[in-house]
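hi! just following up on the protien thing from before. the input was this:
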Amino acid sequence: MSSAVKLLAVETSGRIGRIALAADGRTVVERDIATGMRHGQELLPVIDAAVRSLGWSPEEIALVALSGGPGSFTGLRLAVMFARTFCWRTGARSLLVPTLRAVAANAPADCPSVAVVA
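and the predicted 3d structure came back as:
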């Protein structure tokens, strides 16, 4: 078992879901969840396949980061229930990340700023 801090990120707030696994702050696997709001059917199999592809066990994941919206109520509820159950079972911690903050943080440095009009 590696000493790298392992993280699972879950995004289910939109039509296309996505998960990512990271070790020590570096993304090592990303997977899409099929379109058509199928998050409930595909979230667990996609996570399971991604974790297995790295040879990890669920207990090695120290942190679950999940999108907090805005977005699909059902998708957000699904992610919260998954994270609560996963963390309860494995002892991992969870972190709620505001979706719009994550989008802004990942904008290119040369992205023009937009004035907000009240």
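The radius of gyration is 15 Å.
The beta strands are 6-11, 17-23, 26-33, 61-67, 93-97.
cheers
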